[in-house]
Amino acid sequence: MVNNPKYPVFFCIPDLTGFTKFMTTADSDFAHQVISKILNKLIATNILDMKVAEVEGDAIFFYRTGRLPAISKVAKQCKLLFQAFNNVVDSYAQTEPENFQKYLAKNQLGLKIIIHHGETTITKINGKIKLLGEDVILAHKLLKNSVPFPCYIMLTNNYIDKIKNKKIVRNWFNWERLKNGKDKYEHFGLTHYSYIPLPDCNINKIRK
């Protein structure tokens, strides 16, 4: 029996909040156009040399194996993701003002970003690269959590524990005060994390 080697893996998962309601209430053509444009722009912001494991309708599963990216770059990546999201949403105020006012102006769509670190095995299924392992499952589960905000960044303790100087986390993710959170997941128990709530997903309102 061949054992597949495990690799350290960094996850960055931007996920749209309000997706289901938006897709079921907005004009179908408009909704598909908006979501497609947002996802493409989010993928285009990739400065961490990450790969896309999959796109699941409203979430992009970026991953990177090997060395952990510098926290300064992770923080910059998060800013770029929020900027790309806001730029797309704001563009519709000019191009489709009626649809914008009806479906987007009141922050019906939001963005959350999950940052996680763990281990994975890599295999090919039907010619496509697939990630397997407990942390891959947990990364998916983390999308469902008790953070009471539509826009935020979550940093799991698994990720923070990999950073030798913990103070540097607050130095780079200093836009709002880090809050502590936890959720219980079947088979995993309590998972602890820190999160940064962001006002309306608007990068211009983030405290410097």
Task: Tell me what you see in this structure.
The protein has 208 residues and is α+β, with helices and mostly antiparallel strands. The protein has a single domain, classed as Alpha-Beta Plaits, CATH 3.30.70. It is built from 7 helices and 8 strands. It has helices at residues 19-25, 28-44, 71-95, 97-103, 134-141, 157-160, 167-172, and strands at residues 6-17, 51-55, 60-65, 110-125, 128-132, 152-156, 179-185, 189-197. Strands 1, 2, 3, 4, 5, 6, 7 and 8 form an 8-stranded mixed sheet that branches. Strand 7 (179-185) and strand 8 (189-197) form a beta hairpin. The mean pLDDT is 90.
Average predicted local confidence, pLDDT = 90
What structural class do helix, strand and pairing data support?
alpha+beta
CATH architecture: 2-Layer Sandwich
Overall shape: it is globular
CATH topology: Alpha-Beta Plaits
Distance between the termini: 54 Å
Could you name the CATH homologous superfamily?
A: Nucleotide cyclase, GGDEF domain
The count of β-strands is: 8
- Largest sheet data: 8 strands, mixed
Taken in chain order, the helices and strands follow as: EHHEEHHEEHEHHEE
Could you give a quick summary of the protein structure above?
By secondary structure, this protein is of the alpha+beta class. Helices cover 36% and strands 31% of the residues.
List the main descriptive attributes of the protein structure presented here:
208 residues, alpha+beta, Alpha-Beta Plaits, eight-stranded mixed β-sheet
Layout of secondary structure:
Blueprint (H helix, E strand, L loop, with lengths): L5 E12 L1 H7 L2 H17 L6 E5 L4 E6 L5 H25 L1 H7 L6 E16 L2 E5 L1 H8 L10 E5 H4 L6 H6 L6 E7 L3 E9 L11
Helix pairs in contact: 2-3, 3-4
